[in-house]
Design brief:
This is acyl-homoserine-lactone synthase. This protein is an alpha+beta fold and 196 residues long. The strands form 2 sheets. Strands 1, 4, 5, 6, 7, 8, 9 and 10 form an 8-stranded mixed β-sheet that branches. A hairpin with a 2-residue loop joins strand 4 and strand 5. The radius of gyration is 16 Å and the shape is globular. The two termini are 19 Å apart.
Protein backbone atom coordinates (compact mmCIF):
# COMPACT_ATOMS: atom_id res chain seq x y z
CA UNK A 1 0.00 0.00 0.00
CA UNK A 2 1.47 3.35 -1.10
CA UNK A 3 0.54 6.98 -0.61
CA UNK A 4 1.21 9.63 -3.23
CA UNK A 5 0.56 13.35 -2.99
CA UNK A 6 -0.39 14.57 -6.44
CA UNK A 7 -0.25 18.09 -7.85
CA UNK A 8 -0.63 19.49 -11.34
CA UNK A 9 3.16 19.85 -11.47
CA UNK A 10 3.94 16.19 -10.64
CA UNK A 11 1.00 14.23 -12.04
CA UNK A 12 2.95 13.38 -15.22
CA UNK A 13 5.29 11.28 -13.04
CA UNK A 14 2.48 9.01 -11.84
CA UNK A 15 0.89 7.58 -14.99
CA UNK A 16 -2.84 6.98 -14.65
CA UNK A 17 -2.96 7.58 -10.87
CA UNK A 18 -4.46 11.09 -11.09
CA UNK A 19 -7.23 9.98 -13.49
CA UNK A 20 -7.79 6.81 -11.43
CA UNK A 21 -8.28 8.93 -8.29
CA UNK A 22 -11.03 10.93 -10.04
CA UNK A 23 -12.58 7.68 -11.32
CA UNK A 24 -12.60 6.32 -7.76
CA UNK A 25 -14.21 9.57 -6.59
CA UNK A 26 -17.00 9.07 -9.15
CA UNK A 27 -17.52 5.53 -7.87
CA UNK A 28 -17.63 6.73 -4.26
CA UNK A 29 -19.63 9.97 -4.51
CA UNK A 30 -21.82 9.62 -7.60
CA UNK A 31 -22.44 5.88 -7.83
CA UNK A 32 -22.31 4.79 -4.16
CA UNK A 33 -23.63 7.93 -2.42
CA UNK A 34 -25.75 9.14 -5.34
CA UNK A 35 -24.56 12.75 -4.93
CA UNK A 36 -25.37 15.15 -7.76
CA UNK A 37 -21.86 16.17 -8.87
CA UNK A 38 -20.17 17.05 -12.16
CA UNK A 39 -18.59 14.19 -14.10
CA UNK A 40 -16.83 13.65 -17.42
CA UNK A 41 -14.86 10.74 -18.91
CA UNK A 42 -15.98 8.55 -15.99
CA UNK A 43 -14.42 11.00 -13.46
CA UNK A 44 -15.95 13.17 -10.71
CA UNK A 45 -14.57 16.69 -10.31
CA UNK A 46 -15.60 20.13 -9.13
CA UNK A 47 -14.52 23.76 -9.12
CA UNK A 48 -11.90 23.14 -6.39
CA UNK A 49 -9.85 20.71 -8.47
CA UNK A 50 -7.41 23.42 -9.59
CA UNK A 51 -3.60 23.70 -9.54
CA UNK A 52 -3.97 25.27 -6.08
CA UNK A 53 -5.12 21.95 -4.57
CA UNK A 54 -3.24 18.73 -3.79
CA UNK A 55 -4.66 15.21 -3.91
CA UNK A 56 -3.57 12.30 -1.76
CA UNK A 57 -4.04 8.84 -3.22
CA UNK A 58 -3.75 5.68 -1.14
CA UNK A 59 -3.15 3.01 -3.75
CA UNK A 60 -2.01 -0.54 -4.29
CA UNK A 61 -0.98 -2.04 -7.65
CA UNK A 62 -2.84 0.67 -9.58
CA UNK A 63 -6.05 0.42 -7.52
CA UNK A 64 -7.05 3.58 -5.64
CA UNK A 65 -8.10 2.51 -2.14
CA UNK A 66 -8.79 5.97 -0.72
CA UNK A 67 -8.35 9.65 -1.47
CA UNK A 68 -8.28 13.14 0.02
CA UNK A 69 -8.15 16.65 -1.47
CA UNK A 70 -6.30 19.48 0.27
CA UNK A 71 -7.07 23.08 -0.73
CA UNK A 72 -5.49 26.20 0.78
CA UNK A 73 -7.96 28.52 2.48
CA UNK A 74 -6.26 31.32 0.53
CA UNK A 75 -7.32 29.75 -2.80
CA UNK A 76 -9.20 31.85 -5.34
CA UNK A 77 -10.60 30.84 -8.73
CA UNK A 78 -13.21 33.18 -10.14
CA UNK A 79 -15.97 33.49 -7.51
CA UNK A 80 -14.76 30.37 -5.65
CA UNK A 81 -12.33 29.99 -2.76
CA UNK A 82 -12.78 26.70 -0.87
CA UNK A 83 -15.87 24.61 -0.17
CA UNK A 84 -16.57 25.44 3.50
CA UNK A 85 -16.09 29.20 2.96
CA UNK A 86 -18.14 29.21 -0.25
CA UNK A 87 -20.96 27.38 1.55
CA UNK A 88 -20.89 30.01 4.32
CA UNK A 89 -20.93 32.80 1.72
CA UNK A 90 -23.98 31.22 0.01
CA UNK A 91 -22.14 30.63 -3.28
CA UNK A 92 -22.96 26.89 -3.44
CA UNK A 93 -26.70 27.33 -3.76
CA UNK A 94 -27.81 25.81 -0.49
CA UNK A 95 -26.62 22.19 -0.75
CA UNK A 96 -24.62 22.87 2.44
CA UNK A 97 -26.20 25.17 5.10
CA UNK A 98 -24.70 28.69 5.33
CA UNK A 99 -24.58 28.52 9.13
CA UNK A 100 -22.15 25.59 9.16
CA UNK A 101 -19.50 27.52 11.14
CA UNK A 102 -19.66 29.34 14.48
CA UNK A 103 -17.36 32.08 13.13
CA UNK A 104 -16.16 33.49 9.81
CA UNK A 105 -14.41 30.92 7.62
CA UNK A 106 -10.63 31.35 7.89
CA UNK A 107 -8.43 32.67 5.08
CA UNK A 108 -4.93 31.91 6.35
CA UNK A 109 -1.74 30.65 4.70
CA UNK A 110 -1.29 27.94 7.34
CA UNK A 111 -4.88 26.63 7.25
CA UNK A 112 -5.89 24.14 4.53
CA UNK A 113 -9.24 22.51 3.85
CA UNK A 114 -9.54 18.76 3.64
CA UNK A 115 -12.37 17.58 1.35
CA UNK A 116 -13.50 14.78 -1.00
CA UNK A 117 -12.33 12.19 1.54
CA UNK A 118 -13.34 8.65 0.59
CA UNK A 119 -12.48 5.01 1.09
CA UNK A 120 -13.19 2.62 -1.78
CA UNK A 121 -16.37 0.68 -0.93
CA UNK A 122 -14.81 -2.57 -2.17
CA UNK A 123 -12.14 -2.62 0.55
CA UNK A 124 -12.83 -5.47 2.97
CA UNK A 125 -13.62 -4.51 6.57
CA UNK A 126 -10.41 -6.25 7.71
CA UNK A 127 -8.30 -3.72 5.74
CA UNK A 128 -10.30 -0.55 6.42
CA UNK A 129 -8.64 0.38 9.70
CA UNK A 130 -5.18 0.11 8.11
CA UNK A 131 -6.34 2.28 5.20
CA UNK A 132 -7.78 4.88 7.64
CA UNK A 133 -4.48 5.12 9.55
CA UNK A 134 -2.57 5.40 6.27
CA UNK A 135 -4.92 8.21 5.17
CA UNK A 136 -4.44 10.17 8.40
CA UNK A 137 -0.68 9.73 8.20
CA UNK A 138 -0.55 10.84 4.56
CA UNK A 139 -2.98 13.74 5.13
CA UNK A 140 -1.12 15.19 8.12
CA UNK A 141 2.29 14.64 6.51
CA UNK A 142 1.33 16.26 3.20
CA UNK A 143 -0.43 19.18 4.94
CA UNK A 144 2.62 19.86 7.13
CA UNK A 145 4.90 19.76 4.05
CA UNK A 146 2.64 22.41 2.51
CA UNK A 147 3.16 24.57 5.62
CA UNK A 148 -0.20 23.87 7.25
CA UNK A 149 -0.55 24.01 11.03
CA UNK A 150 -4.30 23.37 10.83
CA UNK A 151 -6.76 21.53 8.64
CA UNK A 152 -10.47 22.20 8.51
CA UNK A 153 -13.00 19.70 7.23
CA UNK A 154 -16.71 19.09 6.86
CA UNK A 155 -16.84 15.53 8.12
CA UNK A 156 -19.21 12.88 9.43
CA UNK A 157 -20.50 13.83 12.88
CA UNK A 158 -19.10 10.58 14.32
CA UNK A 159 -15.61 12.12 14.00
CA UNK A 160 -14.81 12.26 17.77
CA UNK A 161 -14.95 8.47 17.91
CA UNK A 162 -12.20 7.83 15.37
CA UNK A 163 -10.15 11.07 15.20
CA UNK A 164 -8.76 10.39 18.71
CA UNK A 165 -7.98 6.79 17.79
CA UNK A 166 -5.94 8.11 14.87
CA UNK A 167 -4.01 10.50 17.11
CA UNK A 168 -5.65 13.68 15.77
CA UNK A 169 -6.38 16.65 18.01
CA UNK A 170 -9.57 18.24 16.75
CA UNK A 171 -12.49 20.34 17.89
CA UNK A 172 -15.89 21.25 16.45
CA UNK A 173 -16.18 24.54 14.53
CA UNK A 174 -19.95 24.49 14.11
CA UNK A 175 -23.20 22.67 14.68
CA UNK A 176 -24.12 19.15 13.56
CA UNK A 177 -26.30 19.24 10.44
CA UNK A 178 -27.98 16.78 8.10
CA UNK A 179 -26.66 17.00 4.51
CA UNK A 180 -27.80 14.59 1.79
CA UNK A 181 -27.23 11.19 3.37
CA UNK A 182 -25.87 11.83 6.83
CA UNK A 183 -25.05 14.07 9.77
CA UNK A 184 -21.99 16.28 9.29
CA UNK A 185 -19.99 18.82 11.28
CA UNK A 186 -17.11 21.19 10.56
CA UNK A 187 -13.97 20.42 12.53
CA UNK A 188 -10.57 21.98 13.02
CA UNK A 189 -7.60 19.59 13.17
CA UNK A 190 -4.50 20.88 14.94
CA UNK A 191 -1.24 20.02 13.16
CA UNK A 192 0.99 22.33 15.21
CA UNK A 193 1.72 19.78 17.94
CA UNK A 194 4.28 17.01 17.98
CA UNK A 195 5.18 15.23 14.77
CA UNK A 196 4.35 11.50 14.68
Amino acid sequence: MQTTTLSFSNLHNHGELFANLFRARKQSFIIQKNWDLPEADDMEFDQYDTPQSRWIAIHDKGDVLAGIRLTPTTARCGIYSYMIRDAQEGILGGSIPQDLLDEKAPVEEQTWECSRVFVNHAIPQSLRRRVHFKMVDAMTGAARELGATRLIALTGSSWPRWYGRCGLEAHAMGRKMWIDDGEFQCVSIDLSGKMH
